[in-house]
Amino acid sequence: MPGPTSLEGGGCLVLIAGIIAEYDPFHAGHAWHIAETRRCTGCDYVAVAMAGSFTQRGEAACLSKAARVRMALRGGADAVFELPALFVVRSADAFARGGVGVLAGLGVDVLSFGAECGDIALLRRVASLRDGEDAAFERLLREGLERGESHPRAWGEAAARVLGLGGDLLAQPNNALAVEYMRALYALRARTEPLAIPRRGRYHGALDGEGFASASAIRAALFTDRRPEALAAVPACVREIAAAAAPMHAPDDLLLWTLRNMSDAEIAALADVPEGLEHRIKALAAEVPSREALIDRVKSKRYTRARIARITTHALLGLTRALADRHAWPAYARLLGVRRDAMPLLTELKRRASLPIASDPVGLKGDEVFQLECRATDLRALMCEGGEARRAGQELTTKFIVEEGYGS
């Protein structure tokens, strides 16, 4: 564990831990992770890089960005920064580069993440593999892809065979993401130290009272007759916020209209669209009645449901490969919220950060990554039931949130 950083002028030592999260929604397992991070590191502050209006699954978050920021601050975080949509609605390596880029750019001392495997040395071994630098690894990776496996699965199996590990190590989603975090830390040559905290409970655990219910289980129950059980799975201090969640409408007509009016070449230019898949997407968009039907028809053994869902969101947001390539790493850290008694944390982060910290969205108006963020929030707004939640331009009128304290 790294030593804390001295405040300028020889003051008290400050240790800051960082967490990358979606909090869709924030639940008891997330609160436990923050508390366990404090216990394991003895840190003074916890800063979170949080996804905004959309998630890595390619879906709109079940609660607004502002609601989830408040949940995080009440649930134990000291400050929340934005993980930009350009990195969120992408593959695991891009998601990791976005989160690690923000937190390492802020100068956090520790990156804490949940993993099924708590052996940081083992995760380091896997993360040390680099595409193109190991002939045996490259051969096994190529063979997996030729068998029609998805890239994450082929990568995981190749790594397991080269290193003599259990084949299921990277089949577990949080282990795979942990490895991507560590690869991003290596790529940045960041001084931030990784900390793997073994997860408690099943990854997609049910609302059965055993361990922590997962975010996916809570989302699945939130708009059914099991809503009381779903709300019981979030900490009492944020239950009122979670209770405001309302059903959202899939952007079926908008998506199909968009794809039907795009050329094959325009679809091919979207981020993460593999060569040739644009023709299948274009043809099926002319036939299917909904987004779900399109995803079901396009997905395959090689191209997962989540990947196709992300591609549909890329089409709606105008997230092209060229745009993604222009921004391999975050260029700023946008403040979304802070606890009032954690204001000294902002002073310390401004002192040590290598990225500019943005607290006023108006100053970001000309930035194309922020413009994509605005489109993402406007798209989610159109998926809401009605009223104020559907208003456009929310990103430019929403200031960062100040919460009074934990559980406030």
Overview of this structure, please?
- The chain has 408 residues and is an alpha/beta fold.
- It has two domains: 5-117 and 193-249 and 329-403, Rossmann fold, CATH 3.40.50.620; 252-325, no CATH class.
- It has 20 helices and ten strands.
- The strands form two sheets. Strands 3, 4, 5, 6, 7, 8, 9 and 10 form an eight-stranded mixed sheet that branches. Strands 1-2 form a two-stranded antiparallel sheet.
- Strand 4 (45-51), helix 2 (65-74) and strand 5 form a beta-alpha-beta unit.
- The longest helix has 16 residues, at 173-188.
- The radius of gyration is 21 Å and the shape is globular.
Looking at this structure, what is the CATH superfamily of the largest domain? Answer: HUPs
| DSSP helical segment count | 20
| CATH topology tier name of the largest domain | Rossmann fold
Number of strand segments? 10
- What amount of the residues lies in strands? 5-15%
Quaternary: single chain
Q: Give Rg in angstroms.
A: 21 Å
Main beta sheet strand tally, sense and closure? 8 strands, mixed
**What is the CATH first-level class name of the largest domain?**
Alpha Beta
Structural class: alpha/beta
Q: Quickly count the domains.
A: 2
Shape: globular
Enumerate the spans where pLDDT stays under 50 for 5 or more consecutive residues. 6-11
SSE string:
EEEHEHEHHEHHHHEHHHHHHHHHEHEHHE
Separation of the first and last Cα atoms: 31 Å
Mean pLDDT: 91
DSSP helix fraction: 40-55%
CATH architecture of the largest domain: 3-Layer(aba) Sandwich
